[in-house]
Amino acid sequence: MTSFTLHIMAMLFMLCDHLWATIIPGNDWLTCVGRIAFPIFAFMIVEGYFHTRSVKKYLGRLLLLAFLSEIPFNLMMGSRIFYPIHQNVLWTFLIAVLLIHWNEKAKQKGRLLLRLLVACGSVIAAFILGLITMVDYYHAGIFTVLVFYFFRGRKWWHLCGQFVLLAYINIEILSGYSYEIQFLDNTYYFVRQSFALLALIPIWLYRGKQGPYNKIVKTTYYAFYPVHMLILGLIRMM
User: Fold this and answer.
1) Low-confidence winner among 17-26, 60-69, 137-146, 178-187 (lowest mean pLDDT)
2) How far is CA 33 from CA 23, 171, 186, 232, in A?
3) What DSSP state is assigned to residue 21?
4) What is the model's pTM?
5) In 52-150, which ranges are continuous DSSP H helix?
6) For 19, phi and psi rounded to 5 degrees?
7) Distance CA 146, CA 142 (A)
8) Closest by alpha carbon to 194, among 41, 35, 12, 40?
9) Confidence class of residue 213 from pLDDT cuts 50, 70 and 90?
10) Under 8 Å CB-to-CB from 9, ≥6 apart: which residues?
């Protein structure tokens, strides 16, 4: 599994979710599949941070794309140009990357106590900023990126940490709609958001390889988010 494959998968899953939310409502399988997209993107944001040649340029690209995506996001979500009660996911990632960078700066100083304080401070900041800025997925979205940062690696405890914390974030924090299942005269409830845990399968199959990469691929990565939302938003308004 390469970075290219993960990006393509995440984009297709996200498209499914946005189709369900806009022009093809009522097809729940689309949003169930769509739950897989966000954890993959969150994982790739962390990988992007560690593989970029310039953190400043990386942050600059996220900031620019967040601004460019805001109107398409507003059109898709609220059928209007100005929609202040919900911000696009690039702001979620931008806040998360700033917190990651804060932790990396603390690591460079090498003091364990400082690193622990900054890590705890990052979680608190993620909670507060995610709520007051009303970014996509709120604080849970920032937490998801931080999970892949704090448990970055392939040792057993990295994988366990990712699974346990993502389960808590998606089932307990995000929760949301549940499907009622009858089995042996008992009623069980399956949280739709728990489909997000399936994202760990392709993430764990990733081996750090980039796959195909050129200007066209790079442009596709960045342009897909605002362009597809703009198209769906315009169709929804017709």
Assistant:
1) 178-187
2) 16, 16, 27, 18
3) H
4) 0.94
5) 55-78, 89-109, 112-132, 138-150
6) -65, -45
7) 6
8) 35
9) confident
10) 36, 40, 202
